Amino acid sequence: MLDLKTADFDFDLPPDRIAQQACEPRDHARLLRVTPQGFFDFHVFDLPQLLRAGDLLVINDTRVIPARLFGKRGEVKIELLLHKKTGPSTWLAFARPGKRLKAKDTVVIAPDFEANILEKRPCGEMLIQFSVADEAVIPLLHQYGEPPLPPYIKRAEGAAKADAARYQTIYAARDGAVAAPTAGLHFTPELFKKLESNGIEVVKVTLHVGAGTFLPVKVDRIKDHVMHAEWGEITPECAAKITKAKCEGRRIVCVGTTSLRVLESATDDNGVVHSFSEETSIFIAPGYRFKVADLLLTNFHLPQSTLFMLVSAFMGLETMRQAYAHAIEKGYKFYSYGDACLLEKQ
């Protein structure tokens, strides 16, 4: 990792470029193709023509849970944002107002659903234990929780009903994420059919995206930043398919930074992808040597964020600064519900 400052990854973004609603149909979002030779404007539905027969598309099949909960401690209103499961009925969460809570407090979400504060941790985290059996937690989250929309998506009355479906990929299968793998939000059944007919294979991996993805980098030098851990899985069959494709000279196309992070976590220095079922806190920033990913489809990210650092590692910081300036000038929409870019390093 290069010794760069967090401020090196700053840029100005007009507020009206932050998408408040997702594009419909999904694959009609705009797509900026970024190459060392320049920038080219397309739409996501053009993806089958931009990829090659034989390319292997890696997607993240995590499913976002309704991780935002509202309750009371006495008469005080409390908001909980689940961050990561740590054990049976036990989760890490962020709380607002966190200063009003202490260990052994109870937040009543519903008559049959309470959260007991076990301990307060640095960075505003709370270790909580729900009052129900582990297998009952997810159903109760669906009953009482809301989609955990990022704070830059403004909803006066909280997440809308439409967000429950829209802040989710169409191929989501495994409960556990508290933030969407947003590059995957652009895919439709029709787009997958066109990709398949053009000879592009798809494999699924899992990374349960944590709320740490929302947290700002608070250190001056990026090498001092500590990532939150997230749980991921790559099956032996999937690992073998990716390794085989790489050995055959086929390109590995990661859909989203989450797919890329779990894939790079599972790959050794010889480019062999291994089965994986554990946590990863991989931090990818300029100076990182990519082991397996050739292309990256991703949305536009926040300034000074670890995700903007990742794409800068992939394409070069100056290239990404210029690409983002182009996107801002051309009216692309940014962040979770925004448009996408296809990064092609050479």
Describe the protein.
- It is a single chain.
- With 346 residues, the chain is of the alpha/beta class.
- The protein folds into two domains: 6-64 and 168-344, QueA-like (3-Layer(aba) Sandwich), CATH 3.40.1780; 68-145, Beta Barrel (Thrombin, subunit H), CATH 2.40.10.
- It contains eight helices and 17 strands.
- The strands form three sheets. The chain has a nine-stranded mixed sheet, with helices on one face. Strands 5-6-7-10-9-8 form a six-stranded antiparallel sheet.
- A hairpin with a 2-residue loop joins strand 1 and strand 2 (38-43).
* Proportion of strand residues: 25-35%
In spatial order, strands of the major sheet run 2-1-17-16-14-3-12-13-15
Radius of gyration, in Å, reads 20 Å
User: Can you write the helix and strand succession as a string?
Assistant: EEHEEEEEEEEHHEHEEHEHEEHHE
Q: What is the top-level CATH class of the largest domain? A: Alpha Beta
Structural class: alpha/beta
- The overall average pLDDT, rounded, is 95
Low-confidence stretches: none
Cα distance, first to last residue?
A: 20 Å
Morphology: globular
Number of distinct beta strands = 17
Main beta sheet = 9 strands, mixed
How many helices? The count is 8
How much helix is in the residues? 10-25%
Specify the CATH architecture of the largest domain: 3-Layer(aba) Sandwich
Instruction: Assign the CATH superfamily of the largest domain.
Output: QueA-like
CATH topology of the largest domain: QueA-like
Number of domains: 2
